Amino acid sequence: MKNKAIAILDANWRNGYSVPSKNLYPYQWLWDSGFIAIGFAHYDMDKAEKEIETLLDAQWENGFIPHIVFHQLSDSYFPGPNFHRADLHPLSNKKYPSTGMTQPPVTGFTIEKIYQISKDKKASLNFIKRTIDKVFKNHEYFYNNRDPRNEGLVYIYHNWESGTDNSPLWDSIFETMNPPVYTFERRDTSHVNPEERPTQREYDHYLHIIDIAKSHNYDDAKIAEHSPFLVQDPLFNAMLIKSNHALINMYELIGGNESKIEQLKSWNAKSIASFNSKLYNKELKAYVHYDLRNERPIKLVSSSSFSPLYAGIPTKEQAAELIETMQSKFGGDSMYLLASFDPTSEKFNPKKYWRGPVWINLNWILYYGLQDYGYKDLAQQIKFDSIEILDKVGFYEYFDARKSEYKADSKGYGGSDFSWSAALYLDLINN
Ligand code: GLC
């Protein structure tokens, strides 16, 4: 299995960056790159570093990092660079075409993880020195441009920014919209069973939000004013807070940089306070998303609801409540940990993308989060479940949480030979 994981990562490497999955996703994706680099760090430090440096090379002048970097043209994916038109933004990167949206900011904790895994700390410290200010600038971008009310919580303006693309979380927002019917040819459904992918009508919503952002040349202030989708996402903000912590640790290691450390600490203090007062739902005993456009909490539980454990956000009491919710809704002998959406909800769909299946990156985040809070048994369970699933069916993109679905010839769902499933497997077995 280990050799297979390495072979997948090496096959998905494109001389400077990795594709998440050969046909389905033929470019570089932001948070995929972070997880992939952590996998590389276990056996090929050069690739780990290069993966992140290539991503940072696509950073915009204002610190923004795009969610897809289109390194080359490919007709196996829609929407491509000609639809996204990131060049409409005056500060966009001139070297690489990209999207005008971002993804969960994992780069900060990725570079720290690479350093921790490294056996040559001196060389890795040089890598940190080369990259850390760019990551800091990215965080500055978020707090200066994505937090219109100065709460310490940044918004996402598109469901693709969340990384959890078609989660039921977004259904109530899409109900407020009435996008035009687009005529276009999807490519994902020619690689993967359409039952496991979003519907055509869902895609109309996704494209329409992009068109609105484009009509404002991707100007953040205008997007904050006009985008029908504007959400404070606990997963996204937890990744940012975790990455702030990581940057503090790394700047302390380098020495100097006092004012940056102070800034990072003050962002985190404010963010964590708002996070716990605004995004924690006492009835559900879980963190929930906040729909900033329609001024209402989205009272649904998903795997994102537990991700703040990874960033040290919940108090001990909140953590205990989160575990209660996780076990009562997502646990039990018949289920692998952890479904991406509340299995007790009528919106749960065990085969469809982010509407229910298990994703290895979320499991990985929760494994470390549970460990940090001292829930060792549950952490082990989530790790062993992940490894068992991958052992049974291979390195797919997402997986059924119902144990009864696993027969001798079962497969996973979505793309096969999926990079982050392979990369995070390498990290999990090394722990
Ligand atoms: C899908 C996932 C997203 C991921 C991308 C590339 O869009 O929802 O999280 O980054 O694929 O793997």
UniProtKB/TrEMBL annotation:
GO molecular function: hydrolase activity, acting on glycosyl bonds
Domain Mannosylglycerate hydrolase MGH1-like glycoside hydrolase: 25-421
Organism superkingdom: Bacteria
A Pfam entry, by short name: MGH1-like_GH
Keyword terms of this UniProt record: Glycosidase, Hydrolase
Annotated InterPro entries: 6-hairpin_glycosidase_sf, 6hp_glycosidase-like_sf, Glycoside_hydrolase_63, MGH1-like_GH
Gene3D superfamilies from the UniProt entry: 1.50.10.10
Family per similarity comment: Belongs to the glycosyl hydrolase 63 family.
Protein name: Trehalase family glycosidase
